[in-house]
Design a protein that fits this description.
Blueprint: E1 14-16, E2 19-21, H1 36-62, H2 67-83
Antiparallel strand pairs: 1-2
Helix pairs in contact: 1-2
Length: 88
């Protein structure tokens, strides 16, 4: 894709998830990327929370006897990750 200027349409449609999208650049904004050291504590907390959640959910799911119970447990685990802002 070429670099678009404000108001321009993308030269090609984009296919994603079995759908087609046309891209138009509505606005251009300057962004400030924080330095790694300033976000490192937050990233560490999120990673540690994710690891603790994964360990707890693995223990719970390992107790399930039937496949349907395990699959249901895994589904709830994915949803709980999303609710706390973590990606599994």
């Amino acid at each position: 894709m070429t670099k678009l200027k404000q108001g321009m349409l993308g030269a090609e449609a984009i296919e994603a998830d079995s759908r087609w999208y046309v891209v138009q650049m509505d606005d251009v904004r300057a962004t400030a990327v924080p330095d790694y050291e300033s976000v490192k504590p937050m990233l560490r907390r999120k990673l540690e929370a994710r690891e603790r959640a994964a360990e707890s959910l693995a223990k719970i799911c390992s107790r399930r006897q039937r496949w349907s119970e395990y699959a249901d447990c895994e589904l709830r685990a994915m949803l709980s990750f999303e609710l706390v802002g973590l990606s599994p």
